[in-house]
Design brief:
Six copies of one chain form a homohexamer. With about 290 residues, the first copy, chain A, is an alpha/beta fold. Chain A contains eleven helices and 16 strands. Chain A has a single domain, classed as Carbamate kinase (3-Layer(aba) Sandwich), CATH 3.40.1160. In chain A, the strands form four sheets. An eight-stranded mixed sheet of chain A has the order 5-8-2-1-11-15-16-14, with helices on both faces. A four-stranded mixed sheet of chain A has the order 6-7-10-9. In chain A, strands 3-4 form a two-stranded antiparallel ribbon.
Chain lengths: ~290, ~290, ~290, ~290, ~290, ~290
């Protein structure tokens, strides 16, 4: 996008326009789930990090949850493991979980943390093991298939997140966590972000995705919904794409559990986060309780 | 000034550009002296209040010090008292001090406080009597003339200001304060702001004035200085105008006492504060230690 | 009053007699409404300030609310505005509210603050605008008359008062405050004191007046009541004088809202506050829930 | 002493006179050593307790140190042990130390604590063992005689006293404490009070005794000194009585170690403490650094 | 008991075995009542002190309550007072209460405090008078007999105990306390310990006694119970010995009031406390709610 | 090692013997560097985790720093990268650093964190990126060779570690950290542990290694040193093995920078940490400042 030539005066004017939004969200907790795609491209990753930092620096309590699907698939291929999915969930055997956590916890997470710190935050990378931050129970596939080291979050350590937020740190969460026996399990970042948002009574849960938002009619680009009620979203669930389903289901759960609003934004749009939070021209889809 | 038509994307871009400045000044203490002229025009007053609120909401610790010369002169005339100045200081007899504090403490201060609260802060109006916030010693005119209830600040209660700042309140100071016997004295707001900035070890002291800045050569509009050292400012002192002299002298004192930078800005320029603090296009004059 | 000649020993004995009362009220919140009359005479004003300071220094959490009727009327006359009352409420047009707040906020309040600080407290002057401390809704006259900038308190910012009290400051409140649009409104100090006492769950609300107390029979000086129940006071309301009615109604409301006791004292009696709180010889009228 | 008949008004006047003294000493630390004689007579003991409570309730940080000589001597006689002194120090063998601590720690201390609590404080009894509060090294007689369980304080646990004072408790100290091996030792309360006052940087150390004060000329009742410098007191040391010597020496040490003033008062005078601290008519002798 | 020869390795192994128990009880409140018998023999007293210190140093919040029956009886005999009991309660006239508190408060308490401090704690001795810690109401004998200064605890100052625990001090309580008039009363330490445990919501209340535990059949050594329910203990009450009855009744009350478990241990067994709390081989009797 | 049969009594006795050591090190900061070898064998890793947890639970402030050399070499081989070392430093090109941090941060670190949490701590995994915890500057080989992503710690964020310790979390540090441009760098864990210990003013720095300790004469097993001065260690530096040199140099630096003692222990000995810290039979080599 070409920045238009703006005079200093109009720059300041625009800053001033952000005032009511800063006022509204200052001190609120916002959980942002960033998809692996956004982090795979340096320019996008850098921009998302700057936007998150800006939110943090104006007083919003940010918790970042990230995925890393493409990076994991690539690393598995490099290691000679064929990625396999059942019902949208990655089948994760003993070798695969090792690849998963090395990529998510050892590579993507510290990269994002470093970007956020470079942008002015004091970010701290966490995975479920730390504290522990969350505990995972093993999940089966839709037909009862054994998926290996795959599970869903059963409890979140909100005290630990609030401890860190209260002292000015920004938690950045990779969604690998221990089962009750301490064995690492792979967790889909979409519902994990929802569980964390619910545990923190977040004002907003934002999904930064690689689609423009939710469509009423999947094949019809003109049917993008800019705002809907949670009940309407529930009705749409059956017809959603494989990738959108977990986000939408997690959105429904989070809204039912007390999260204020869920936003589904296109992370590839420049400054999508800032546009959605600090200007009247919201983009993407916003779902309300 | 005409706001140019900007796309949502460029709006967000501009917000993002403010990030490095927010990062730099977050948590820093900035004392802003607002002249009576700026407060006399509702549109300007409202804009200055919004700009101050924005600074406060992004984490800058703001202390506002205000004057009220035109409003005082007008009230004195209405009360049949002829304003009189010696060496730039208002001669203030018993009747006059009553008018001065009624206008500054009873009218201008609560108006500014209400504007700031309307813009999202928790502002609290103070004058020297509160606490007391500062103590005043009687001053004489340049030729030893008796000026009546006129004095200069001899000590500032920084503990009280920090108490309020730490609990999230924004102090707004009218510069009338008690002499050691508790009698109210009129204090020039320019050096009072400097004394407060020095007592707080402020990162910045900003004078919002009704001139564009400091000129190397008073008659030559082209000699506006955008940046100078304190030593250079000291050399300019003899040739400055009556109105600029107290600001410049206070700036020199404040810089010598540990304040980081002093800015002299034109408060009539829209968003002058935001431009100076949040963009690269600084306006006015900046003096460094 | 002639101080009797007392020996050092009896002095100490009297101090010791205050012990049980200090024990009882230490840490309790007491709201004292001081009438404008008491503050109009320097000797009385100084004595009231010393008494308030003594209460504060022995550990009572004091909030002072002051009026200023005579001073306002005088300033209005000086400005050529004829004071006018409907149903005991001052009709306050745009010019009048400016006079009202200049006198209350700009003159009486800092004078009282300075006296209290001189007596050993760390008093801080406040009006409704600060914080804001309270919000006002416009009131009409008994017959629906437009009274201009006149209203009643609809909410009190108890957090702010408790913040100040907890850090050792004594709030001194002038009862001018903003309506929801930020415009200044004149509020009768009697019900304002009651609203503040109720918001703070005060142990006592004291009205320092210029009458000896409440009379059962208005014309009969012998019918002064030293103690009554709130229900009895409600019965007396119709027959009270114009000046006493707002105090009595506010007393009833405050007692219904949880304030422990209301005292109506003669502020012209030397040391009335100390006598009432620290000796067995209570004076004036005490109303209990 | 006969309390004179005073009117309510003069009572309040006297209370008001205490204001400047309350202002001065509020928050200051005052160590008061109470002799065993004062505690042996219920009426005196009760009065001293009330005076101490009054000091505590107006915000003075009180630490009480008590003796118990007469009570110990009486208990030793009852147990068939002949009290014996060398150089003013009680010879204390194994049986005697048991009597000493039972009387001081088990009887006098809880009685005084109960009286202070009855008067409104939250007093907590301590001896050197608690914490430990202080450590004692064995002392010899002036001619090198073995005195048994007798020693002097070598270090004071100021942190513990400040912990208690900060949470609103009033420490009441019996001067029996452990030697480095944990064996109980008898310590003269006069120097122990001095050591405690020095460790706390007390503003005042007060000795409540059974004499009127210090005399320049021991035999001459007219030579009572109301005020002297520490250097003058040092000159007087050789001629002081056996009972006064330890107080005077401890006073010199305490003043050299930073205590503000030492007062030697007649505890048999009613309200001696209040008179000295809250009125201009100081009694007894005051020694300044 | 002969310590067996163990290698360094097995030592460390045993330390490591304590880990799960440390984990479980860290931060929990445990009230330990130590009988006078255990404190009467230096070797036992020293060992109990070390065990208590170890519990304290690994993070258990310990409150110690001690008796002193044998020592009191001996001191009364020495003073020519014949010990007399009605229904297990010591008849305590004016002379006797003086002996009781001198022994408990002045001798046993500071000895135990000194031992605990020597073992690494910061113990602080308390009796009911301090604060006051607890208030006592006079009790009568089973047949309504006047027992003199004998009573039972009616309220416990848990705030004060928690204040001390929170700042790292270990309270050591002698069970003499004031009646509502401040007169000292003798309280059986068994129910006093129960009342304190209940007031603190303790996880455990431990009685260190001089018997092996509770027997189902008093005459049959083989009927020692290692574990029972509170309901079963209630059934056993009528057949218990005079010495065990108060412990058992207090145990029932404490368990009904929310204490987690009550342990009755033989304090003469070496390291009984450590064995019970840190190893699987619990000894004595454990009663559960 | 065969646990000898010990009676419950001797178990308790051994626990009691640990008391003086618990007393000494409670509240002290101890940095423990655990080598990758110890973590590579589940039984050893589990035992080390339990020992670290025991230290943490008795009140020692533990910071764990871990290596992972064998695991990294194995992963590099699996990825077809030939491990290469210059002067003991691993040459780390772009591909290699990715392997290094995936293994250290994504695999070894969360495994150790999970073990510690399973043993009762609240461990939190960190790498240099978090906060950032430390900043790294690029290092060259001994002959100036380019080593790629290899560096040494130039500053440690002690505030962040103390924040976590103060709130009860145990930091577990993987020694990969950002250079000033945010690029990940591999840091030898031995000097990193030393730098962290120095920044925290640690009482102890412990190296858990796979040798018995330091030898005076490298070839002579009988020359194991149990205790030496830092000056003696400096003398030994030239003759130390490649693996021991960084530990020894870091030990010298840490002791010069204020760390109390450095211990070099054989992590393969069962309970080595407990033996060294809690018993008299210290093992390995201890170096004192």
């Amino acid at each position: 996008m070409m920045p238009v030539a703006v005079t200093p005066g109009s720059k300041a004017e625009i800053l001033a326009e952000a005032l009511p939004y800063i006022r509204t969200y200052r001190g609120a907790t916002v959980v942002v789930k960033v998809g692996g795609e956004a982090l795979d491209e340096p320019r996008l990753a850098s921009m998302v990090a700057e936007d998150l930092a800006l939110l943090g620096l104006v007083g919003i309590r940010i918790v970042v949850v990230h995925g890393g699907g493409p990076q994991v698939s690539q690393a598995m291929s490099a290691a000679g493991i064929q990625p396999r999915f059942i019902g949208g969930l990655r089948v994760t055997d003993d070798d695969a979980i090792e690849v998963v956590r090395r990529v998510l916890v050892g590579s993507i997470n510290p990269d994002l943390v470093a970007r956020l710190n470079g942008a002015g935050l004091q970010a701290v990378g966490l995975s479920g093991a730390d504290g522990p931050l969350f505990v995972v129970e093993r999940a089966l596939g839709p037909g009862g298939e054994d998926l290996g080291h795959v599970g869903s979050v059963t409890s979140v350590n909100a005290v630990m997140l609030n401890d860190l937020l209260a002292r000015g740190y920004t938690p950045v969460v990779a969604t690998v966590g221990p089962d009750p026996n301490g064995r690492p399990m792979n967790v889909n970042a979409d519902p994990a972000a929802g569980a964390i948002a619910a545990a923190l009574d977040a004002a907003k849960l934002v999904y930064l995705t690689n689609v423009e938002g939710l469509y009423r009619d999947l094949g019809d680009a003109g049917s993008l919904v800019s705002e809907m009620k949670v009940s309407e979203l529930e009705g749409l669930l059956p017809q959603l794409s494989q990738g959108m389903r977990p986000k939408a289901e997690s959105a429904v759960d989070a809204l039912r559990d007390g999260v204020g609003k869920v936003h589904i934004l296109d992370g590839r749009v420049e400054r999508a986060l800032l546009l959605e939070i600090f200007t009247d021209e919201g983009i993407g889809t916003q779902v309300m309780a």
